Amino acid sequence: MAGRIDRDALIAPYDVVGHPPAPDLTALAELAADLSGTPTAIVNLMGESKQHSVATYGRFEPGVCNRSDSMCNVILDEPGQVIINDTLDDPRFADNPYVTGERANFRFYAATHLRNPQGQVLGTLCVFDDEARSLDDRRIRGLGLLARQVDDALELRRRTSKLVDAVAELAEVRAELTRSNEALHAFAGQVSHDLRNPLTAINGFLEELQYNVPHDTPSSEYVARALSSTHRMSDLITDLLGFAKLGGELRREPVMLRNLVEEVRHDLAPALTAVGAHLDVGPLPTVRVDATQIRAVLQNLISNAAKYRHPERPPLIAVHSARQDHAWRIEVVDNGIGVPRDRREEAFSPLTRVHDPHDSSAEGAGIGLATARRIITAHGGQIGLDASPSGGTVAWFTLPDPTEGGPLGGPPTPRSARVF
């Protein structure tokens, strides 16, 4: 058994009750009167106890009356259109105040139900005349079609009202996010300053101490370890500050990703050479991105590919791209030690390291991938980790591309054929 309908709640989202008549609904009421040849037409919505005439044509103005007095209330549960050629001949209406002269002298009455997309009755489109009359099938059908137009106009108002509310809510969320980001940046800057000052002093004292302790002694080793720890702490502070700031405001411009990769190759040349890494770069697209931030992502992924190398083979790293729906998928593929399947998502959490922290190849603060996700998300893309065919890692990210062809409208760029 269907539950009882709250009629006030049913009609409220259409945002017409209590407002001046909407021009589109008034125009449809006029068309209904013209089509039927009657002097009066009304668009009614039925609340719990009131009938709301939200648009009218003729001598009646939009207004409210009790449902108990309404002619349309009588036929609200009728299955189809209702045509009453002479209301005095119908016992349902003979004593109605809109028929007896108390409020009007309607002798002819025709009504078509208005429905929402779920088929629930919202009210009626009705026409009246003070004289008895009849309508041919063409006019009756026309009133039915006009009622469907009223349905569409009401639904458009509901959706527009909902959209306006959603936009206002999004504006509030955006304003709050802006305030939060500003607070985060300010906090990160203050923390960075507060941490660096004592760290700089500690580092200075340790360097001074290093010059004054004998070499090749336990003391010199302890000092060296302490200095190394301060350097790592400094790097961590830098990474945390970068995590707080990156991914915020974007300066989008056409960027050739291959040029960014070549810049990264140049900057990482000493590190790549030191481990005997080979970097292969396939065709890459031109996309509209923030070059500085996407470069930071590429540098992190390529650096990781060299850092987490397999001890039994030289690092082979490939960077290539492929079309994916309306986006570009960029992949950095390596033949290193890989990331366990159950820890790939965890790798993107700040301060998380998925490899053995005592492994010399696992140096890092666990901030890089978290920052990369922040940047890619700000660009409207996604980022993740998969296994490569060699057991290493495929670090991938997507960048939306509104063009239907290749980069900036060119032909699609093929995936690099080289797979490790």
TrEMBL record:
GO biological process, one term: osmosensory signaling via phosphorelay pathway
Keyword Phosphoprotein: yes
Enzymatic reactions: ATP + protein L-histidine = ADP + protein N-phospho-L-histidine
Main location: membrane
Superkingdom as given in the UniProt entry: Bacteria
Record key words, sorted: Kinase, Phosphoprotein, Transferase, Two-component regulatory system
Cited Gene3D superfamilies: 1.10.287.130, 3.30.450.40, Histidine kinase-like ATPase, C-terminal domain
Pfam families: GAF, HATPase_c, HisKA
Domain Histidine kinase: 190-403
One GO term describing the cellular component: plasma membrane
PROSITE patterns on file: HIS_KIN (PS50109)
InterPro entries given in the database record: BphY/WalK/GraS-like, GAF, GAF-like_dom_sf, HATPase_C_sf, HATPase_dom, His_kinase_dom, HisK_dim/P_dom, HisK_dim/P_sf
Protein name: Sensor-like histidine kinase SenX3
Protein's cellular compartments: Cell membrane
EC number: 2.7.13.3
Organism of derivation: Cryptosporangium phraense
Top enzyme category: transferase
Molecular function per GO: phosphorelay response regulator activity; phosphorelay sensor kinase activity; protein kinase activator activity
Region (Disordered): 401-420
SUPFAM superfamilies in the record: ATPase domain of HSP90 chaperone/DNA topoisomerase II/histidine kinase (SSF55874), GAF domain-like (SSF55781), Homodimeric domain of signal transducing histidine kinase (SSF47384)
